[in-house]
Amino acid sequence: MNASAPQEPGPAILHLWHPVAILQDLRPGETKRTQLLDREIAVGSGDAGASVAYRRWLGDLGVGYGLVPVAPLPSPPT
Question: Could you tell me if residue 4 is inside a domain?
Fold first, then answer.
Protein backbone atom coordinates (compact mmCIF):
# COMPACT_ATOMS: atom_id res chain seq x y z
CA MET A 1 0.00 0.00 0.00
CA ASN A 2 2.98 2.30 0.31
CA ALA A 3 3.04 2.58 -3.47
CA SER A 4 -0.19 4.58 -3.34
CA ALA A 5 1.15 7.11 -0.84
CA PRO A 6 3.39 10.02 -1.82
CA GLN A 7 7.03 9.43 -0.94
CA GLU A 8 8.14 13.04 -0.78
CA PRO A 9 6.70 16.00 1.10
CA GLY A 10 5.29 18.65 -1.17
CA PRO A 11 1.97 20.14 -2.24
CA ALA A 12 -1.05 18.60 -0.59
CA ILE A 13 -2.37 15.83 -2.80
CA LEU A 14 -5.68 14.03 -2.82
CA HIS A 15 -5.62 10.69 -4.56
CA LEU A 16 -8.58 10.05 -6.84
CA TRP A 17 -8.92 6.44 -7.91
CA HIS A 18 -10.54 5.99 -11.34
CA PRO A 19 -13.02 8.88 -11.01
CA VAL A 20 -15.45 7.70 -13.68
CA ALA A 21 -15.73 4.23 -12.14
CA ILE A 22 -16.20 5.76 -8.70
CA LEU A 23 -18.94 8.08 -9.94
CA GLN A 24 -20.73 5.17 -11.61
CA ASP A 25 -20.39 2.96 -8.53
CA LEU A 26 -21.72 5.43 -5.98
CA ARG A 27 -25.32 5.40 -4.83
CA PRO A 28 -27.21 8.39 -3.42
CA GLY A 29 -26.16 8.96 0.16
CA GLU A 30 -22.87 7.08 -0.29
CA THR A 31 -20.92 9.91 -1.88
CA LYS A 32 -17.94 11.37 -0.09
CA ARG A 33 -18.04 15.12 -0.44
CA THR A 34 -14.74 16.99 -0.35
CA GLN A 35 -14.32 20.60 -1.37
CA LEU A 36 -11.63 20.86 -4.03
CA LEU A 37 -11.41 24.55 -4.74
CA ASP A 38 -7.75 25.65 -4.75
CA ARG A 39 -6.59 22.14 -3.94
CA GLU A 40 -4.52 19.76 -6.00
CA ILE A 41 -5.53 16.21 -6.73
CA ALA A 42 -3.65 13.36 -8.35
CA VAL A 43 -5.07 10.58 -10.47
CA GLY A 44 -4.13 7.02 -9.56
CA SER A 45 -0.60 6.97 -8.19
CA GLY A 46 -0.21 10.64 -9.02
CA ASP A 47 -0.12 12.39 -12.38
CA ALA A 48 0.56 16.09 -11.98
CA GLY A 49 -0.35 16.83 -15.59
CA ALA A 50 -3.79 15.26 -15.31
CA SER A 51 -4.46 16.76 -11.89
CA VAL A 52 -5.24 20.19 -13.32
CA ALA A 53 -7.95 18.86 -15.62
CA TYR A 54 -9.50 16.76 -12.88
CA ARG A 55 -9.31 19.60 -10.40
CA ARG A 56 -11.21 21.85 -12.81
CA TRP A 57 -13.73 19.13 -13.65
CA LEU A 58 -14.44 18.28 -10.01
CA GLY A 59 -14.22 21.95 -9.05
CA ASP A 60 -17.09 22.63 -11.44
CA LEU A 61 -19.08 19.96 -9.61
CA GLY A 62 -18.11 21.61 -6.32
CA VAL A 63 -17.27 18.28 -4.74
CA GLY A 64 -14.96 15.34 -5.16
CA TYR A 65 -15.95 11.71 -5.00
CA GLY A 66 -13.98 8.82 -3.52
CA LEU A 67 -11.17 11.08 -2.38
CA VAL A 68 -8.63 10.07 0.24
CA PRO A 69 -6.57 12.89 1.78
CA VAL A 70 -2.94 11.84 2.12
CA ALA A 71 -1.44 15.12 3.33
CA PRO A 72 -2.59 18.18 5.29
CA LEU A 73 -4.15 20.79 3.05
CA PRO A 74 -2.67 24.28 3.43
CA SER A 75 -4.71 27.44 3.18
CA PRO A 76 -4.93 28.91 -0.32
CA PRO A 77 -2.52 31.79 -0.95
CA THR A 78 -4.00 35.25 -0.47
Answer: no
Give me the tens of pLDDT residue by residue for the chain, a chain 78 residues long.
Answer: 445 554 444 444 444 444 444 444 444 444 344 444 344 444 343 344 444 455 555 555 544 444 444 444 444 455
Decide if 77 is inside a domain. Answer: no
Residues near 78 by beta carbon (within 8 Å), at least 6 away in sequence: none
> What backbone phi and psi angles, to 5 degrees, belong to 22?
-65, -45
Total Cβ atoms within 10 A of residue 59: 16
Closest CA to 58 of 30, 27, 32, 29: 32
Q: Is residue 5 part of a domain?
A: no
